[in-house]
Design goal:
130 residues, 94% helix, rod-shaped
């Protein structure tokens, strides 16, 4: 015995399939949204973890950079003071030598000036030839 399916029964059956398909699609969408939300929550937690771990490291690096800059500035100040002291000693020794040996000091100064003038003249001539 064959059962004859009426158009109304076929439409009802098709409507049932369509409703089931729509329900399945909605269920799949909700499931996908839940999975995506969970993934975003985990990713957000990871970002927060990385941020909380990076902050102390960045603070430590910043502190170390400040300390290095301070040490460098102190070293420059100390070196500058040492150079200033050496210049003062050399100046005092020069003044002492000039007081003790004035004629020799004038002759040395004149000879040094003559050598410098000869070098300048030589360099200016060679630069004009180039």
């Amino acid at each position: 015995m064959d059962t004859v399916t009426t158009p109304r029964a076929m439409a009802s059956e098709a409507q049932g399939y369509a409703d089931k398909a729509a329900d399945n699609a909605n269920s799949a969408i909700r499931s996908t949204q839940n999975v995506a939300n969970d993934a975003f929550d985990r990713m957000s937690d990871k970002v927060d973890d990385v941020r909380s771990q990076a902050a102390p490291m960045l603070n430590r690096l910043s502190s170390q950079a400040e300390q290095a800059a301070r040490r460098s500035a102190d070293a420059i100040r100390e070196t500058s003071a040492q150079l200033r002291e050496k210049a003062m000693v050399a100046s005092d020794q020069t003044v002492g030598y000039i007081k003790d040996e004035p004629v020799k000091a004038v002759l040395i100064a004149a000879a040094t000036g003559a050598v410098l003038m000869a070098l300048i003249a030589l360099m200016s001539r060679s630069s004009r030839n180039v």
